Request: fold
Amino acid sequence: MPDQLQPLSHNKVFDGWHHQFQHHSQVLGCNMRFAIFLPPQAQNQSVPLLFWLSGLTCTDENFMQKAGAFETAAKLGIAIVAPDTSPRGANVADDDAYDLGQGAGFYLNATQAPWAAHYRMYDYIVEELPNLLSQHFPLNGKFAISGHSMGGHGALMIGLKNPDRFTSISAFAPIVNPSQVPWGQKALSHYLGDNEQDWLAYDSCALLANSHQHLPILIDQGSADPFYSEQLQPEKLISIAEQMSYPIRFRMQPDFDHSYYFIQSFIAEHLHFHHAYLCQ
Amino acid sequence: MPDQLQPLSHNKVFDGWHHQFQHHSQVLGCNMRFAIFLPPQAQNQSVPLLFWLSGLTCTDENFMQKAGAFETAAKLGIAIVAPDTSPRGANVADDDAYDLGQGAGFYLNATQAPWAAHYRMYDYIVEELPNLLSQHFPLNGKFAISGHSMGGHGALMIGLKNPDRFTSISAFAPIVNPSQVPWGQKALSHYLGDNEQDWLAYDSCALLANSHQHLPILIDQGSADPFYSEQLQPEKLISIAEQMSYPIRFRMQPDFDHSYYFIQSFIAEHLHFHHAYLCQ
Reply:
């Protein structure tokens, strides 16, 4: 019997539908909300799915309301799921800071108290959520992954660790080297402890340096992003990719910042990029 | 000397720029925020301007963040201004209800205490804001007007009362007959008093019935809009327009609701509609 999904809202948008659901996550030990866009093609055939991982403080709603992705996704026949960014609820550990705890799960499996009890977003995104979605929606098993900022880290890290599960990876302004920048060092030390070797399992620069299988990767970075030089530093990943002859398409986008105005300007190109591999 | 604009934020989006400004409104007697999108053409020529009037509870941000209008506006060379929906501030009268007071200005000039002191959104939108914008931005004097729900009422009402100032009107799910529906009756009685004759100066059905000059009008309504049958009833306006041989293009959009998912699905068509008249 399929796990239960509780519908929360649904909206017609372009030729498809946006839905929000709540479900109980066994992996996270709490109720979770996610949103899914189903293109019109899903009414009579199975479709590929793009995972969108959002950034710090976001829920399922930020991308769905602000990215302007649905006209292109409807045309290309791509479903999009937007999970939440952490476990949620009164019983889930949290912190007053915006960059730790609820809204800041960093898409990893925590090992340290008080986080280890619920913060298992890696297993949720890689295992539980795809299984749940495959039970309930007409998906053809082709998955791509994308995200923004902390979610760009999530997309790169999860894609690099699971090259057989995803056709392609893209990211907007990703954290590529969390073990070496303040946002990442704070999160990794709290969630994983002080042994920095343990952090490398979730660091895209380290993962890329040890990768043997190449996935198509597209990264966009705004030149006016206030987090660019301290927290993001995409050149670190690009430099390793060049040494490895790992083909990454990296684009510095002049004058764009870290906001959804940046994302909405290029999301259609990311969807076309993924479409080429999802529908090969 | 031009009135002062205080810049609050700016974002590159597609080939244009989104800006937020604060200024002191003489008409409203308070500080006001607005947002403006400038297309790339504004860098070396003057451009036409679409006024976007938002619905209940909104600020300048809802449309700019959620409507997905900028790709098309950038291509067509149309600037878009999104004013706030009422006067704002601790000294401005308010009400606990979402449909009266701040966020619910109904784009009229109030005559009743405690509202009359600040609630003069009609004069703000028709006089003060266009003058301010013309001082600061490269506008060519061609204005169109559009809006959603309460802002659809505002767009129709202001356009019908000022056919020489606007080339064209469009609306999403507008309140067309506020004197006869609960949202409108509540607002009009508080802002204008109990003489229902006074309400007709702001009622699009009454204005259309007495109009002698025809503007192009486009109206979209979602069939799954929960406010459709009680608060909106666009057929009332369409019926009067047919009697008057006033050409209104009215489209019932199956399954769409009252949200920005509806607006983002058709905003490009509204921009093309206005473009045809703004650039004649």
About this structure: Strands of chain B lie at 6-13, 16-25, 30-38, 47-53, 79-83, 139-148, 169-172, 217-222, 248-253. Chain B touches chain A through 22 residues (CB under 8 Å). The mean pLDDT of chain B is 97.
